[in-house]
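Justification of resources, computational component.

The compute hours requested in this renewal are based largely on the per-chain cost of generating structure records like the one below. Each record pairs the submitted sequence with a full structure-token output. That output is archived, and it is also reused by downstream analysis tasks.
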Amino acid sequence: MMFKSLLGFAAMAQTAFGASLQQVQNFGNNPTRIQMYIYVPDRVATNPAIIVALHPCGGTGQQWFSGTRLPSFADQNGFILIYPSTPNQSNCWDVHNPASLTHNGGGDAGGIISMVNYTLDRYKGNREKVYVMGFSSGGMMTNVMAGSYPEVFEAGAAYSGTAHACFAGAGGATPFSSNQTCAQGLQKTPEQWGAFVRNSYPGYNGRRPRMMITHGNADTLVRPQCATEALKQWSNVLGVSLTRQVQGVPSSQFTQHIYGDGTKLQGFFGNGVGHAPSVDEQTLLRFFGLIA
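The structure output for this chain reads:
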């Protein structure tokens, strides 16, 4: 869950245009005092899409801004990027906290939703095109956000994460926490995993976010079984089953797992890939429907 390689990047990277990452104060209800950073390209689309990008443990929103090429794609396509940042729990998200695992329960998840609502209102964003992605702890939180707030997110993409509520009941969800059962590949049935999602928002019968799960098969910090469990969870929630596997997508190291027709759920496993972001931005944005 630590992402030390990001630490060498500039905290406030700037594109070739004039836009830069900016901190936003007073964005709304913020029960855990997390921080909001936002990237608004110089040329914003009408009713722009919004992507929430969640950093790993030990990282910050500013560092994650430099961790992928999403800002350059925002420049090209006019969508807005939100970079939440937590100073708590060794800069790890509270994916174990009942507050974040409960719809409108508060926690880090509640603060992130405030950021989304602020951005939708301030920039006249498209409420049908709000997405979430993240790596490691951010990947775990991606699944939490999709499970606790299905009405907010159209799709999510989790890299090196764990299933929604996998850390429920643990005292913490950092690499230093005593209980690492989840990160080592806690196994449950698809129905049990699906129940965690449904119980986070009892009575909700609306559309569920489409999901993309990516993991390295050589990851020893967050075991690849975690991705298998997340895929079991979302296959149950979304009502789709594995139909085929495709070698060499999006690159030679990866195998794509397609559920149903692939529009609702996909998985990617990288041979020889360890605990690394492995973000292929074009694959991500195509799955989100933001580029052709």
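Residues 107-122 form the longest helix (16 residues). Strands lie at 22-24, 35-39, 50-54, 80-85, 130-135, 155-159, 210-216, 242-247, 254-259, 265-270.
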